[in-house]
Design goal:
It contains 11 helices and 7 strands. By secondary structure, the chain is an alpha/beta fold.
């Protein structure tokens, strides 16, 4: 059976999109090129900043661009879409309504993973845009989970890591990430969600997963679900 064609609404941000593609490749059970997923990726980096709009710091909504991109990928023959950006999922319903093919929901899939692990209180590290819209909280409550966000000082540190380091192409130190995880554990969180795909980039580069098994990476979660939805198998191990 031929696998489904995946349309990737990328560029939000560009590096996270590249890492998403790499994760899909690495996590797919394949012994040759032809057994990998077919993906059509639009790395549209010029989409207006999602967080700035949601915080009222910019009047430029990203929705028009994302809806147009979704329609373009649908016309190109994609069977379903993915959007490797948590903050942009505030617009999930509107983008979904713009096309007739499914748009997977990174937040819903990540919360499902937390629930499957038996978590009840999840600490969400994300952009201020995701925090202010309570995107994770809205989904978590549907699954009987509680979402907890950092205090103001910690959230400022999260935003600095995302915007001043990762998006700016500057390195992040392992102890900075570990300190954020520790702060959420202090709030009695039994799972910590990387609710921004830029954080996923740093977490992966620093090889932190083995030392922090309670961390749930939203980008990896989306990659795994994409493989399954496309009709492929996950690599064992």
């Amino acid at each position: 059976m031929q696998s489904k064609l995946v349309g990737v609404l990328g560029g939000v941000g560009p590096m996270a999109t590249v890492y998403f593609e790499q994760m899909v490749l690495e996590l797919t059970e394949a012994s040759c090129d032809q057994e990998h997923l077919n993906m059509l990726v639009y790395n549209h980096a010029a989409i207006p900043d999602r967080t700035a709009f949601l915080l009222g710091e910019s009047k430029r909504s990203p929705l028009f661009d994302m809806a147009q991109d979704a329609q373009m990928l649908a016309r190109a023959g994609c069977d379903f879409l993915v959007l490797p950006c948590n903050t942009a999922h505030f617009f999930h319903e509107h983008i979904q309504n713009a096309v007739s093919i499914p748009l997977l929901n990174i937040i819903e899939e990540t919360v499902k993973v937390c629930a499957a692990r038996g978590a009840r209180r999840i600490g969400v590290l994300a952009t201020a845009g995701t925090v202010v819209t309570d995107t994770y909280g809205l989904v978590s409550r549907r699954f009987g989970l509680e979402s907890v966000y950092p205090d103001a000082a910690t959230q400022k540190q999260v935003m600095a890591v995302i915007y001043d380091r990762i998006k700016a192409g500057k390195p992040v130190r392992a102890k900075e990430m570990a300190a954020l995880y520790a702060r959420m554990r202090e709030d009695d969180c039994d799972a910590i969600v990387l609710g921004c795909t830029e954080l996923s980039v740093a977490h992966r580069d620093l090889e932190l997963q083995a030392a922090h098994p309670d961390v749930v990476d939203s980008l990896e979660t989306l990659a795994r679900r994409t493989i399954e939805y496309a009709g492929k198998k996950l690599r064992a191990g």
